[in-house]
Structures are given as C-alpha cells and as structure tokens.
Amino acid sequence: MKPNTYVTAVQDALGQTDFSGLDQAAEVLKTAFREGRQVFVFGNGASAALASHMATDAGKLLIADDGAGGRKRLRILSLNDNSAWLTAIGNDIGYDRVFTEQLANYLRPDDVVIGISGSGGSPNVLHALEFAKSRGATLVGFTSARPSAEKIADLCDVCLRAPLEMMEQIEDLHVIYHHIIVRCVYDAITGQAEA
Question: Which domains does the chain have, with CATH numbers?
Fold first, then answer.
C-alpha cells in the first residue's frame, strides 16, 4: 500500500464519520462528570493502549472548579492497567473474564463502560459489556465497519464505528474520536463552549 492510499482512506473515513455519535459519547461523559459517575474503559492490544490513553487524557484534563472552592474531576479508570490483577484473572478464571471480574468489584448502576474492539468481536470485551448492561450501566463502544462489529453495536447505547475494515486505520480513527470527545467535554465543563 502506498502512503497516499492509506491517508486518503483515513481522510475519506473521517468524512463519513457519524458526528452525532461523537456528540452522544461526549454527552455521556459530561453527565458522568456532573453526576460523579465512574467511567471504565478497556480493550485488547492497541485498544488496550487506547484505553490507557483515554484514562490518562480524560483523567488529567477533565477537571473543573466545583463552585465551592474545590476541583471536580472525571472519575475514569482503564481496566488494562493493573497487570497483576489482569493476569491473575486470565490465569485462574479465563481471559474472557479479565474485564468482567474487575467490573464485578467496582461497577454501580448508571456508571459508564467504554469497550474498545476494532473487530467488534473480542469475547472478553463483549462479555464485560453484557455484564455491564445487566447491571444498568451506560455503554459506549468503539468499533469498525467489519461485519463482526454488529455484536458490539447491538449491545451499546452509543457505538462509534470507524467506517473502515483495515485494523491500523480503524485504530487511527479511534484515537481521533477519543481526542474529539475529550476536547468537547473539556470545552463544556470549563465554560469554553455551550454544554
């Protein structure tokens, strides 16, 4: 593949992006921020790296004055970041449960769960989303245009689907989507834009 072919495909996909989905995801995080809900994010491979990236960016940036002399923060946690717990669950229970077992300890109704799966068919991501749905969480998915992505799309309240099938390009768009959402929330909570 030539570089210009790769870039053109990503540019075209950005033009086909459903921006209403990005707005909806931003609204979910704004509500979580306002109401002190916990946000959990997770994925495999590069999606695990994005989960850590999301928790870092949102946790560091989404802070605002609470009106009483304090600071309000988005409560966000990547379930990929405790390697000891992750590997213990994978070894002792099964890799398909590595996120579900962590959610079983922490998840409360109305919390937010963000599952990232470029294919949309990762068993551990789907299992965790099914569990979270059964517990009354709000579900956000990051996935793609692959046929297997219907699995995650059917589970989520908001599903961001990169309109691509090449994994590297899907991952590129997921990073861009994340940055757009975080900046939208940041502008809203700091008064730089209308909430």
Answer: 18-189 (3.40.50.10490)
